[in-house]
Amino acid sequence: MKVVIMGCGRVGARLASLLEQDGNDVTIIDIDSYSFRRLSPDFKGTALIGNGIDEDVLRSAGIEEAGAFVALTQGDNRNIMASQIAKHIFNVPRAVCRIYDPLRRDMYEELGLETVSPTTVFAQILREKLESQGE
After folding, report:
1. DSSP letter (8 states) at residue 27
2. Which SS3 state, helix, strand or coil, does residue 3 take?
3. What are phi and psi of 37, to 5 degrees?
4. CATH code where residue 39 lies
5. Has this prediction a pTM greater than 0.90?
6. Which domain holds residue 51?
7. How crowded is residue 43: how many other Cβ atoms within 10 Å of its Cβ?
């Protein structure tokens, strides 16, 4: 499957490597070329400098053939906008968006975006860890 990832931070770079190892065709986009240093040395996908809310950059990344798009920048607004562009303009079947703010995550999830809030996920993991320590 063709996967386009926006944001080559720690999570984006790791996800790109994992998906490529699984046999996917991966393109990762970032506005800063220095971010690509995080990619595994044996990464065979495409690293593309550009803004993932720019339709021309998305076309260059192969968004029109993509089966999935993942937005992983530090900015909730950019992630939301890019996911909506992927889903509604380019008809990408799966558009997953990282949203740090749990309230906004809930709202956009209700509007049809596939979202993940690391804030909520990590808090739940810590809670479970603390509860299991007491047993």
Report:
1. E
2. strand
3. -65, -20
4. 3.40.50.720
5. yes
6. 2-133
7. 17
Tokens of 21: 């190892």
Farthest CA pair distance, the chain: 55
Bridge partners, 4 (sequence order)? 27, 69
Domain count, the chain: 1
Amino acid at 48: L
**Which residues have a Cβ under 8 Å from the Cβ of 90 and sit 6 or more positions away?**
58, 63, 64, 66, 69
Q: Are 15 and 5 in contact (CB under 8 A)?
A: yes
Phi-psi region of 31 (alpha: psi -120 to 50; beta: other; left: phi over 0): alpha
Could you give the CA distance from residue 109 to residue 104 in angstroms, rounded to a whole number? 8
pLDDT at position 135 is 58
Alpha-carbon span 71 to 81, nearest angstrom: 9
Separation CA 86–CA 55 (nearest Å): 9
| 17 contacts: CB under 8 Å, gap ≥ 6 | 39, 40, 43
pLDDT at 44 over 70: yes
